[in-house]
Amino acid sequence: MNRPFIKIDSPILAAMISILVMFVCFERSIAGLFALNQELASSLVDEIAVAILCFAAVLVSVSRSSVLRKVFTYAIVFGAYLIVISLLFGVNADIVQVIFQVALHCQFFIIFISLYGLYVHGLLIPTTLLRALMVISIVGAIFQLLLPELFSDLVGFAAYYETSGISRISRLRGFQGNPNALGSALAILIIAMMYGGNRMFFRRQRVLIVYGVLFLVLALTGSRSAFIYILAAYLCLPTSMTKKMLVITLGVSVLFVSGDLQFLIDKTLYNISLTVDSSHQVEYVRWTLLKTGFDLAVDNFPIGTGAATYGSAFSRDSIVYLQEGLASINAFASYNNIHDSNIGTLLGEFGFVGLILFVTFFYYLVRLGINIHAASFLHLPKARKKNIRFIVVLVSIMLISIFLRPFFSSSYYAVLFTLLYLNYIDYWYSE
């Protein structure tokens, strides 16, 4: 079956787009490689890459596809709504901050639509990019393990991420520069192999080896959220519950023997203890962000306090922190780790209506692409069930992520998620 997209024969443009996608995935190492300021340079690399990807997608898509024109229009209307209600009813009157903050909140949608538009015009091959992500991530992990000092000198940050407050453990961070980011990439790769066809990546005899390497490196990152992603995806597979429980038991046993299970348990219990800690020195503020965000959504029903006011990049010194008694808490005073709860931020800034709109737009985009590209198969019961299972996986990843990560405002997680999604769509045409 021919793929239903208008192919643009430009290998150079396709290669440039692939490089930009990799820039988003490894921005910290790229900044360190050129001895630039880590925080400023990595953010600059990220935003420039995202802007170029979006611009390229608009150029090749809007004039060629009525569906993409409609999607881009919806995205613009959605962003405009967030800006208008923030300026009319929010507590931050700085129009520049509000506009930039809304753009950051919508990074997931910007990247998802852009990469999808580039894909349908033949300028992006998701399987190739996932393979590149896999190779670079594994090479970075091995490099870090074997030559940690040289690794640190090259990328400009410490080779290992030291977890404090619990049993000491050095966690792999790889070229991503963060153990959770590396763990999430490996989890997405494993899920892509589960739902995108193992043979799209490697021959049958190599698949188990690849799974083994990915799980081994993942265990060394100590990323709990990554394991949760994989568990949610695995439970949705059409295999018997007996087999699922057997595999899960085997996995837990391996984690127990390696000592990683104890770390994951200790880390979770430590975070729970911080959740109930009322001292002003608390650094783990995810629960505080969520609880206060819910209170703000109730007090400012139904639209919240507006963009750039709570738990977001442009909310530094926001009056909301003072009003809610958060200004003296160490994490807020130092503006550190306050972006961890995407759902808390969305509730606080845009209220219940805003959160519902974000989730609804997400679901609309996910369903749209699958319905378009799998239209020829939807009359088959097996195909419908497979699509439903995969959509459940995608929604599960989103729901898990908005509690644990800045999902909608992170270009990195947007790229990972979109490549997983496009790889599944591509899989239909290999069948």
Task: Write a structural description.
The structure is a single chain. This protein has 19 helices and two strands. It is mainly α and 431 residues long. It has one domain (11-272, 340-428). A two-stranded antiparallel sheet has the order 1-2. Helix 4 crosses helix 5, helix 4 runs antiparallel to helix 6 (107-120) and helix 7 packs across helix 19. The longest helix is centred in the last third of the chain and has 32 residues, at 342-373.
Structure described in brief:
With 431 residues, this protein is mostly helical. It has helices at 11-25, 27-33, 38-61, 66-89, 95-105, 107-120, 126-146, 148-155, 179-195, 204-221, 224-235, 241-258, 260-275, 286-299, 319-323, 330-333, 342-373, 381-404, 411-428, and strands at 160-162, 170-172.
Topology:
Blueprint: H1 11-25, H2 27-33, H3 38-61, H4 66-89, H5 95-105, H6 107-120, H7 126-146, H8 148-155, E1 160-162, E2 170-172, H9 179-195, H10 204-221, H11 224-235, H12 241-258, H13 260-275, H14 286-299, H15 319-323, H16 330-333, H17 342-373, H18 381-404, H19 411-428
Antiparallel strand pairs: 1-2
Helix pairs in contact: 1-3, 2-3, 3-6, 4-5, 4-6, 4-17, 6-17, 6-19, 7-8, 7-9, 7-19, 9-10, 9-11, 9-19, 11-18, 14-17, 17-18
Instruction: Please bin the fraction of helical residues.
Output: over 70%
| Strand element count | 2
Shape: globular
Strand order of the largest sheet: 1-2
Give the class from helix and strand content and strand pairing.
Answer: mainly alpha
Global Rg = 22 Å
Order of helices and strands: HHHHHHHHEEHHHHHHHHHHH
